[in-house]
Write a structure and sequence with these properties.
Helices cover 40% and strands 13% of the residues. It has 5 helices and 6 strands, in the order βαβαββαβαβα. The chain has a 6-stranded parallel sheet with strand order 3-2-1-4-5-6, with helices on both faces. Helix 4 links the parallel strand 5 and strand 6. Helix 3 runs parallel beside helix 4. The chain starts with 6 loop residues before the first strand and ends in a 25-residue tail after the last helix.
């Protein structure tokens, strides 16, 4: 599959952001991947690690950057934010991550000129709603990933319980991504 001229920025170079960048490189989804993080050295290190593996993949431009690099992006993926601590609710986490998401949105929009924004940071539904509102973008430009993960978990647990191949299980969780205590256990 030849690469098109697809440019993707990832805000947050932690575990989720670095994994997203690695997966995009491995699947040759983008020709240009930019990692943006408040910890510039972390973003540089993650970009360098992926670049070292390019000899096994098609050539790409992967680097640590900053918000001006969001210009001309086909997608901006937001993974940045604090992790939930033991005993902390999603609403407790929202109190901490809302100011971070507001700052990220403000910085993206200074350079935004198209593309979609994908919100992976938690709490995904709350942040997706707020980023949509703060950005002023029309419907269909800001997406969240919360129930995609819930749907994957549902398929996994049903396949495991029924001892069938996961590819033969289809279903979707619709609603808010949150704490599920039934089939999934507390998450």
């Amino acid at each position: 599959m030849p690469l098109g001229k697809t440019k993707i920025a990832i805000i947050g170079a932690g575990f989720v952001g670095a994994t997203a960048a690695y997966n995009l490189a491995l699947t040759r989804t983008a020709s240009e991947i930019i990692l943006i993080d408040v910890n510039k050295d972390k973003a540089k290190g993650e970009a360098l690690d992926i670049n070292h593996g390019l000899c096994h993949m098609e050539q790409m431009n992967i680097y640590a950057g900053d918000y001006p690099d969001c210009a001309d992006c086909d997608a901006v993926i937001i993974t940045a934010g604090l992790n939930r601590k033991p005993g902390e609710t999603r609403l407790d986490l929202a109190v901490k991550n809302i100011p971070i998401a507001r700052d990220i949105t403000k910085n993206i929009m200074k350079h935004y000129d198209g593309g979609v924004i994908l919100v992976v940071a938690n709490p995904a539904d709350i942040l997706t709603y707020l980023i949509q509102k703060w950005s002023g973008l029309p419907t269909g430009k800001v997406f969240g990933t919360g129930t995609a993960l819930d749907s994957a978990r549902l398929r996994y647990y049903v396949a495991k319980k029924l001892n069938v191949d996961i590819h033969n299980v289809h279903g979707y969780v619709i609603g808010e991504h949150g704490t599920h205590r039934s089939l999934f256990g507390a998450r």
